[in-house]
Amino acid sequence: MDAALLLPLIERVPSMAAPCRSHVDLWRIGEETAGWARAHGLVVGDPDGSRVGRGRFERLAARVFPETGTVRVVRFAKWLTWLFSFDDTLDDGPLGRSATGIDALYAELLRAVRRGAPRPGAGPLEVTLAELWAETVPGLSSEWRRRFIGHMEWHRSACMDEAVNRRTGRTPSIEEYPLLRRRTAGPFVFDLAEAVLGVEVPEAVASSKPWARLVDGTNDLIAWCNDVASYAQETMRDDPHNYVTVASRGLGLDPIAAVDWVNDRITERAIEVQAAARALPAEFTRKGLDLAAQRGVSKVAVGLLGAPRAHLDWLLECGRYTPVPVPAPRKGPLRIAGRLSQVTRA
Amino acid sequence: MVTTELQDRKLDRAFEHLDVDRDGVIERDDLVGLGARFLLGFGEPPTSIRGRALLDNFDTVWSALLSRLDMEADSRISREEFHRGMAAAFIHGPDWEPAFRPAAQAVARLCDTDCDGMVDPGEFRTMLSAYGTAEGDIAMAFSALDADSDGMVSVTELVAAAREFYTGDDPTAAGSWLFGRI
């Protein structure tokens, strides 16, 4: 099972029917992002040897923001690299089962953000977060910064909730999972659209129901598609935090039927997101936005509307969720001895 | 390229549709902003068939305009240059059919949300609101275009009205009222 199971969505979901444009500087964005990740220790050694290295996040950033200045798209690709590195830190080690460990890590990360600098000797996640924050926030209001940090806190508590579930062997219910998943998906990333496009959504609009529906719905579409693509890997780790797993266990479906069920939810959610988008112009008028402000906020909203297909295209071509061939398990000393003897003969 | 006083007034309006920050110049990002506002009004993402068509065809219009002014893709266009480029490309030049008509069709098809070939007053209002047209002018424009008063304007009529607005010189033509009073 892999991202190919999402392909029917291209025909079923009109809002995901056309491929995204991509940025003309894709190659440069990739080189700069990869170089930065290596230089800061987020990717160590052969990039193809780690999930974050195989992520090629520039391919996602370049599709979400195909018209934006290269420097800003590079920065967004770095943010994506940071988020997925953080996720992998939790997924691949014991930290993912320790709520107190996550809480402590996140506390240091947020202190670095507030301080504007990492601690001496801090690890790659803290160093890169402080750097990205310092590069991103100039020109952005205190309201935007509060919203972003609030979403990081949201992410922090959700990661801790997941750790408790992993430690206790609990699978989230089908009712509670969508909200949990929305929080673990890194909701602050959606705030970055404003920073990338250089357009801040006025707080009156950002706090409105139509805007929340647009952002939450977009987050859901991306997270649920990601769950379908990553199902095999999460199953191998016995991690229950995947919509396919939750549907399979909650509804008694086999995995393929559970994927179909998730794809149905994605199809329905896409319609709701479009309805939220249509409600926004009236909200602009109610909140007194002039025409220039409306056009600017529309760019942010349309960037979000295109993100699910951008993410789908990225899922289909990146190697992040492609299972890496695992050597066959050793069967006993005889086989090892055989190999050793071959080496000796050579 | 000579333009009439009526054409100049309509081109001024078209320039103001794009120069919403009133800095006296337009650039590609202004066209992107108009496209985004269109898409949002209809809840259409840039990754639907109709949304992608709109953006691609807007790019074609921009390229045609710049090519007549011998400019690069990221150039800024003043009001005077806009008049000159529009006249050279679409009023007197050959670029209407290959460049502007597809863009006008993409906008009209976006308005036709139920794909019945007709645009109703609500869909028309959504379109003109994206341009910043005042409510009174929207009603006036719809009445002018709805020749048989059946409460609908066909997609074909809307495209023809766009051609009349951007290139025509007949003050009595319905298309000259596409955005209300000039």
From TrEMBL, chain A:
Its EC number is 4.2.3.-. It comes from the Bacteria. Keywords: Lyase, Magnesium, Metal-binding. Its cofactor is Mg(2+). Belongs to the terpene synthase family. Coiled coil: none annotated. This is Terpene synthase. It comes from Actinocorallia longicatena.
Automatic annotation (TrEMBL), chain B:
The keyword Glycoprotein does not apply. SMART domains: EFh. The keyword Repeat applies. Keywords: Metal-binding, Repeat. SUPFAM superfamilies: EF-hand (SSF47473). It holds the Pfam family EF-hand_5. InterPro entries: EF-hand-dom_pair, EF_Hand_1_Ca_BS, EF_hand_dom. Residues 6-41, 133-168 form the EF-hand domain. This is Calcium binding protein CalD. It comes from Actinocorallia longicatena.
